Amino acid sequence: MASQQRGNSLPVRQKSSSASTSSKDSHTVTKRLQHELRTLMMSANPGVSAFPEGDNLFKWVGTIEGAEGTVYEGLQYKLLLEFPSGYPYQAVSVKFSTPCYHPNVDNHGNICLDILKEKWSALYDVRTVLLSIQSLLGEPNNDSPLNSHAAELWENQEAYKKYLLQKYEQDVRSKQS
């Protein structure tokens, strides 16, 4: 009977240990995200910002503005950032919520950027990710486009900017009014 009780209590201990580990991991991720939020708010990076969506620290809304001197200058885009429970050892998931015409962004807002996939590092933070996406706007990787039309048009910057502004007006500004 004693061995039966011991056998029954062992799985309970494992579950509570696993639950406390999960809670501890969640607390660590929460502390990291709070720190990143403070750092981002105090940084002087023009054209990038992000804040939690409501009370959910694992879902943020980010904003990037097109950098000066690029065809995206003056345009503003919203992004959705979702942090996995394994963050920062697992990459944050980032998607454009504002339609974005770009060689490395598909029609669903998915972004082809190596640091969001195979080149992810726990050293990256929200600020780094946002600055990388802002940089990508002006310097696409046409070797692996998600939008082949944008990649082909990119070579002619004048035509690209004209098309981009028409798309932005159609997709974004018309929906804001």
From TrEMBL:
<dbReference type="Pfam" id="PF00179">
    <property type="entry name" value="UQ_con"/>
</dbReference>
<keyword id="KW-0832">Ubl conjugation</keyword>
<protein>
    <recommendedName>
        <fullName>Ubiquitin-conjugating enzyme E2 C</fullName>
        <ecNumber>2.3.2.23</ecNumber>
        <ecNumber>2.3.2.24</ecNumber>
    </recommendedName>
</protein>
<comment type="function">
    <text>Accepts ubiquitin from the E1 complex and catalyzes its covalent attachment to other proteins. In vitro catalyzes 'Lys-11'- and 'Lys-48'-linked polyubiquitination. Acts as an essential factor of the anaphase promoting complex/cyclosome (APC/C), a cell cycle-regulated ubiquitin ligase that controls progression through mitosis. Acts by initiating 'Lys-11'-linked polyubiquitin chains on APC/C substrates, leading to the degradation of APC/C substrates by the proteasome and promoting mitotic exit.</text>
</comment>
<feature type="region of interest" description="Disordered">
    <location>
        <begin position="1"/>
        <end position="30"/>
    </location>
</feature>
<keyword id="KW-0067">ATP-binding</keyword>
<dbReference type="GO" id="GO:0005524">
    <property type="term" value="F:ATP binding"/>
</dbReference>
<keyword id="KW-0132">Cell division</keyword>
<keyword id="KW-0547">Nucleotide-binding</keyword>
<dbReference type="GO" id="GO:0051301">
    <property type="term" value="P:cell division"/>
</dbReference>
<keyword id="KW-0498">Mitosis</keyword>
<dbReference type="InterPro" id="IPR050113">
    <property type="entry name" value="Ub_conjugating_enzyme"/>
</dbReference>
<dbReference type="GO" id="GO:0061631">
    <property type="term" value="F:ubiquitin conjugating enzyme activity"/>
</dbReference>
<keyword id="KW-0808">Transferase</keyword>
<feature type="active site" description="Glycyl thioester intermediate">
    <location>
        <position position="112"/>
    </location>
</feature>
<keyword id="KW-0833">Ubl conjugation pathway</keyword>
<dbReference type="InterPro" id="IPR016135">
    <property type="entry name" value="UBQ-conjugating_enzyme/RWD"/>
</dbReference>
<dbReference type="InterPro" id="IPR000608">
    <property type="entry name" value="UBC"/>
</dbReference>
<keyword id="KW-0131">Cell cycle</keyword>
<feature type="domain" description="UBC core">
    <location>
        <begin position="28"/>
        <end position="177"/>
    </location>
</feature>
<comment type="similarity">
    <text>Belongs to the ubiquitin-conjugating enzyme family.</text>
</comment>
<dbReference type="InterPro" id="IPR023313">
    <property type="entry name" value="UBQ-conjugating_AS"/>
</dbReference>
